[in-house]
Amino acid sequence: MTATGTREIREVAERALAWVDAHRADFALGEDALAADGEVDRSWKPLGELAQVCATVTRHTAPPDPLHARAAGLLEFAWHQTGQGELFPRIQRLEPFATYPLEVYGAFASAGYRHPAYEEAAAVVARTRSWWLTEQEPTRRLAVLSAEERSGIRRAGPEELLPAGTWLAGRPEPWTFERDAGYAATHVVFHLTDWGRDPGALPPDLASYLADWLPAWLDTCLEAGMWDLSCELLAVAATVPRPESEPLLEGAWQRVRAAQHPSGALPELEHTPGGAGDDGSERHFMNHYHSTLMAAFAAVLTTAQPREATDGTTDAAGRTRHRQSGQGAPA
User: Fold this and answer.
1) In this structure, is residue 330 part of a structural domain?
2) Among residues 131, 130, 207, 126, which one has the least CA distance to residue 163?
3) 70-76 long-range Cβ contacts below 8 angstroms, 24+ apart
4) Residue 94 in 3-state DSSP?
5) Is residue 324 part of a domain?
6) 34 and 94 in contact (C-beta within 8 Å)?
7) pLDDT at 274 over 60
């Protein structure tokens, strides 16, 4: 990657997080966050994705970096939305066998935000046969296992089932790749590598398969204007060993950069309903927030090297810390 290319990719991340910061109110949990009929995909899911991407950005940037500071501030905002973690035990009591609270909590835990009381309650449920016998798609179960690991939860269960049952682990005919398979494949990589923190955790056979076929899949998604999935594939490309000077990757970033609005938002699809204008509507937010977060996520993985923690967890301010009794954010 040329110096100019690296700088331009870095600008994609900066602009994307600037848009996210300007729209932080849209990530806030509403009064329906604990409602039995609440829409999780419009409340907890965006907040959890915000926390995950910002955790990655703070991990891969140094504290003096303005990108690090912005991501750290967004992490603090997201943790505040959970009542410094207090909403997690509350939702645990309401929905003890729902996995999404633990998945969201795992993103915070990876950045050093802990709530021991919730972890204790979640561990009790995770020891039940009902928890680990619940039928789930393999990629989703891998997400739950990852969240358990991040949250310090250990359970008795057939962990050897994964990732063998996933689409990616089967190394299927590359021409069978399509949208759903693409999202499943990228998330297998994210969970196995702890969202880019441990690239070496990806099994060599999967890394080799991805090195062979990811360029063709990425080119297909770019041609179709599937910016969200393209960014996820670029994040995988940053995790899988590949030649830094590969022309496709630099060309892919040029296309993503061209698709990014001046505001920093990136639409999920080239022909996203609502067009390029930010009218402040919920529809605009829902059609742009995930792809914009993925643009920042992939750009940071592509341009930065992770900082090594000397012990325990590294918090959002770049300090290494141990688990705290966690009624608040890291000190």
Assistant:
1) no
2) 207
3) 70/17, 70/18, 70/21, 71/17, 71/316, 72/316, 72/317, 73/21, 74/17, 74/20, 74/21, 74/24, 74/50, 75/51, 75/108, 75/111, 75/113, 75/316, 75/329, 76/316, 76/329
4) helix
5) no
6) yes
7) no
Tokens in use for 316? 């959002």
Please indicate, yes or no, whether the overall pTM of this predicted structure exceeds 0.70.
Answer: yes
The secondary structure element, H or E, covering residue 253 is: helix 247-259
Which residue range forms the structural domain that includes residue 216?
Answer: 3-310
CATH number at residue 171: 1.50.10
Q: Report the distance separating Cα 50 and Cα 29, nearest Å.
A: 12
With beta carbons less than 8 A apart as the criterion, state whether 206 and 168 touch. Answer: yes
pLDDT in tens, 71-87: 999 999 999 999 999 99
Alpha-carbon gap, residue 318 to 109, rounded angstroms: 15
How confident is the model at residue 232, as a pLDDT? 98
Burial of 180 by CB count in 10 Å (0-12 exposed, 13-18 middle, 19+ buried)? Answer: exposed
> Can you spell out the DSSP letters for 173-194?
-GGG--HHHHHHHHHHHHHHTT
In a domain, 318, yes or no: no
| Count of structural domains, the chain | 1
212 contacts: CB under 8 Å, gap ≥ 6: 174
Residue-wise pLDDT for 23-55, tens only, equals: 999 999 998 899 888 899 999 999 999 999 999
User: Which of the four pLDDT bands, split at 50, 70 and 90, describes residue 330?
Assistant: very low
41 is a domain residue: yes
Is-contact 25 74, C-beta < 8 A? no
